[in-house]
């Protein structure tokens, strides 16, 4: 279905600032017909990560807005972020917001929300080559930690048909992106990279996300804050909505 809305400033339909370092502020022609989004051709590791990350930003925007289904604006956010990451006009943002969340949210297991018997977990395990620095460290209860053992977060979750909280997946994708960037893997054909022995399983990086009703921004401890209280930077601009998608 083709939709038409008025001109807006590009920055108002940019992805959330917690996702990219977008500084472009030109006008974007929102009157252009928007075709139904299709999955782009994924050739390189960079494409692979960028598409997952763009889908993540789309889900984040929808959840932050309390939407039950994706609207046109959310698809634009995904499309713009993916294209920006691909052509180099945008970059995945630093861990600033992720670290801020870690410091401000109640201390709880990031996998189940338990607040007892907490320990430190390496999101990407050290035994697999995960970094031993703060960005890779999260809170985990003893039960989740012992269940996860030396497995990568996505590998562990996929075994139990789970899907991580959006903001946890954001941290994870940033770690994967950083590793691939530092090791010169971004331009590598994905098929080739899948054969490499990496600290994570590239094949598990999601392109398809569960429905919004099954996603959550964060796993909260019981009787804790609700979604609206997450300290989260935004563009500060209300995004246009469209009933057509
Ligand atoms: Zn737990």
From TrEMBL:
Q: Which lineage ranks, top first, belong to the organism behind this chain?
A: Bacteria, Pseudomonadati, Planctomycetota, Planctomycetia, Pirellulales
The UniProt entry, under SMART domains, shows: HNHc (SM00507)
Please state every residue range assigned to the domain named HNH nuclease. Answer: 97-146
The protein's name in its UniProt record: HNH endonuclease
Q: Which InterPro entries match?
A: HNH, HNH_nuc, NA-targeting_endonuclease
Q: Which GO terms describe its molecular function?
A: endonuclease activity
Arranged from A to Z, the UniProt key words for this protein are: Endonuclease, Hydrolase, Nuclease
The organism encoding this protein is Stieleria neptunia
């Amino acid at each position: 279905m083709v939709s038409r809305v008025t001109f807006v400033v590009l920055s108002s339909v940019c992805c959330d600032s917690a996702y990219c370092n977008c500084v472009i502020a030109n006008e974007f022609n929102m009157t252009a017909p928007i075709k139904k989004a299709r999955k782009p051709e994924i050739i390189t590791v960079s494409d692979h990560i960028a598409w997952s990350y763009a889908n993540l930003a789309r889900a984040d925007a929808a959840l932050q807005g309390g939407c039950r289904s994706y609207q046109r604006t959310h698809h634009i956010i995904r499309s713009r972020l993916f294209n920006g990451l691909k052509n180099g006009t945008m970059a995945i943002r630093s861990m600033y917001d992720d670290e801020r969340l870690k410091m401000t949210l109640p201390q709880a297991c990031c996998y189940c929300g338990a607040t007892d018997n907490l320990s430190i977990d390496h999101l990407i395990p050290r035994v697999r080559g995960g970094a031993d620095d703060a960005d890779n460290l999260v809170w985990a209860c003893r039960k989740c930690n012992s269940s996860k053992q030396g497995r990568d977060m996505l590998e562990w979750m996929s075994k139990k048909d789970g899907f991580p909280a959006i903001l946890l997946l954001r941290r994870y994708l940033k770690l994967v992106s950083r590793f691939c960037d530092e090791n010169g893997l971004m331009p590598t054909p994905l098929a080739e990279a899948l054969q490499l022995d990496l600290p994570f399983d590239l094949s598990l990086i999601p392109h398809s996300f569960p429905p919004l009703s099954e996603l959550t921004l964060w796993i909260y401890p019981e009787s804790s804050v609700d979604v609206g209280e997450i300290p989260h930077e935004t563009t500060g601009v209300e995004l246009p909505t469209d009933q057509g998608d």
